[in-house]
Amino acid sequence: MLSYRHSYHAGNFADVLKHVVLVEILMHLLKKDKPFTYIDTHAGAGLYALDSAAANKVQEYKAGIALLDSAQLPELRDYFSVINGMNATSLSRYPGSPSFAEYFLRSHDKAFLHELHPTDFKLLNNHFKQDLRFSVKQADGYTGLLSLLPPDSRRGLVLIDPSYEIKSEYSQVIESLIKAHKKFATGTYAIWYPVIQRQRIKQMEIQLCRSGLKNIQKFELAVKSDTEESGMTASGMWVINPPWSLFDKMKSVLPKLKTALAQDEHAYHRCEVLVEE
User: Fold this and answer.
1) Does the annotation count 161 as an active-site position?
2) What is the CA radius of gyration of the chain?
């Protein structure tokens, strides 16, 4: 149950997509002075060393962040500002979602991070224990999420980003989202998914579209054609109550990411409104 370690996969093409979306939402929340709350249900270790033995065992970052040039993607200057800020010369560290939040949160904003894996929790807690904006718990993120809603700020972003190593989690994600939305209908929810078996994602999407939730957008990046045999070929984000600027931003950026990260001629991207407001 607790075997997944994101340190093996940090900085891969799926992280790039997830964090580009995350940064755009965070930047939108910063446009108002009123505080907001960031909730991460599966926070991981928070920060990853790309020169570690784990990262270099599979070297997924070399087919992800290492292929991107900030000069050729000026639309992503805020995303790259976080990465460049922690890599003075060469690319040696990649921020997890909590570290992206750390960069953008103001003194009056709050963050709640959940992580069950004991090793990753220790790393996460050590990183944030001096930061009064952050609360870190070794706890189930789905249960923790519901206990925090609605947040005192009444403005917020919820990131649901599990490993999906347990098959029941595909349906649990949508069920938890529906429960959370009932308690905090105006929040923005970002749900990451991997395409390993396309049918599982189709079933999740059907469940999502039938849930009664409105204002749902989908952003997907495939680096090669779907297959049942070679692991993750694509990943995506469903965003509920997205910022008004997100769709146009992703419509512009996704084709460039596809070109930069494609692993074969079947790479593609999707930018869709699944359910209107």
Assistant:
1) yes
2) 17
pLDDT band at 2 (very low <50, low <70, confident <90, very high): low
Residue 251: alpha-carbon gap to chain centroid: 18
Q: 209-220 in b/e burial notation, b at 16+ Cβ within 10 A?
A: eebebeebbbbb
Sequence-distant (≥ 6) Cβ neighbours of residue 223 within 8 angstroms: 13, 63, 233, 234, 258, 261, 262, 263, 264, 267
Find how far residue 211's CA is from the centre of its chain.
22
SS3 73: coil
Tell the residue number behind the tokens 């925090």, with chain if given: 148
Pick the catalytic residue: 69, 120, 161, 264? Answer: 161
Query: Helix, strand, or coil here: 248?
Result: helix
Rounded to whole angstroms, the maximal C-alpha distance in the chain is: 49
Match domain 6-275 to its CATH number in 3.20.20.450, 1.20.120.450, 3.40.50.2000, 3.40.50.150: 3.40.50.150
Residue 174 pLDDT grade (very low, low, confident, very high; cuts 50, 70, 90): very high
pTM of the model: 0.96
